Amino acid sequence: MNETAALSVETVPGISEPRSLDDRTASHTGQTMAPSWRVPWGPILVLAALLVLLYHRVAVKLVIDWYELPDFSHGFLIPFFAAYLVWDKRDALRRTPVKPTWSGLWLVALGLFELLVGVFGADLFFQRTSFILLAIGLIWTLLGKKLLSELKFVLFVLVLAIPLPTIVFNQITFPLQLFASHIAAEVLPWFQVPVLQEGNVINLPAMPLEVAEACSGIRSLMSLFTVAVIFGYLVERSTSRRVVLALCSIPIAVAANVARIVGTGLCVQYWDPQKALGFFHEFSGWLMFVVSLGLLYGVHTTMGLFGRGSRHTA
Q: What are phi and psi of 71, to 5 degrees?
């Protein structure tokens, strides 16, 4: 009897094999179930242990540099923001199929070679960037190119946490010193302050004012650019607007630094040189950074207004 019933079920049109509860639920709601990841935790833990073994000294020195170098103190924000980015894209990552490939193996080898060059050449920049290169190669090899594409912005953000090599840093800093000195020397006479510029030194009647490396604006430039990248991701939905917001942080940071130098020159001339180079100098740095954040928000608001105007026109 049971065999006859079973045969009759198989031969009746429109009746298929029993489905799982998840399949029945998906069919009833009309939704497609996202592919589930089967994570091989054993190999992942072994790989993580090897990465910790290779890079623990590099990571410790990087954190020390974030603490000791004010120009790169924004690095403390980067790991938390990168983790947020991965969490924010978790649904897209789950939907992306895992397709391991050998195509990224050459990047793994190149990253390890760069690490060796950095270690034996005592080059911290090579050691640190080798981790990014190695991460790209491992993601490409173990997870596939599509998942690497989903994580490309996360990897870019990690690059912002790496201090620039000294030779590149100096190539950027010195022109900024000269530019800020020149603009400040042009603006100060508008306030009846006679000046004589000699390189990065602005000679005032009260005393010479040197635009040192720390006053070049590189500190506020790099920090403001990083904040603009984070802010743009949180408030903008268009990639083009995020790029515009990040690029606008560069002239904003330079202009804010020039305003800080002009303010210091005015305090030296009309107030007290000691106070101008002491409390006011430190306070004006924080004040200009806050003003720069306000200008970034103004750029964001302006782009929103233009966006609404174009939609109404359309």
A: -65, -20
238: its two tokens = 């268009």
Same domain (yes/no): 65, 108: yes
Q: Is the pLDDT of residue 287 over 90?
A: no
Q: Are 245 and 266 in contact (CB under 8 A)?
A: no
CB atoms within 10 A of CB 290: 11
Residue ending a domain, among 112, 133, 163, is 163
CA separation for the pair 178, 159 (Å, rounded): 28
Residues 194 and 123 in one domain: no
Q: Which of 124, 130, 134 is nearest to 66 (CA)?
A: 124
* 154-185 pLDDT, tens digit each: 999 999 999 888 787 778 877 888 888 888 88
Do residues 127 and 234 both lie within one domain?
A: no
Q: Which residue range forms the structural domain that includes residue 182?
A: 167-313
Helix (H) or strand (E) holding 87: helix 77-88
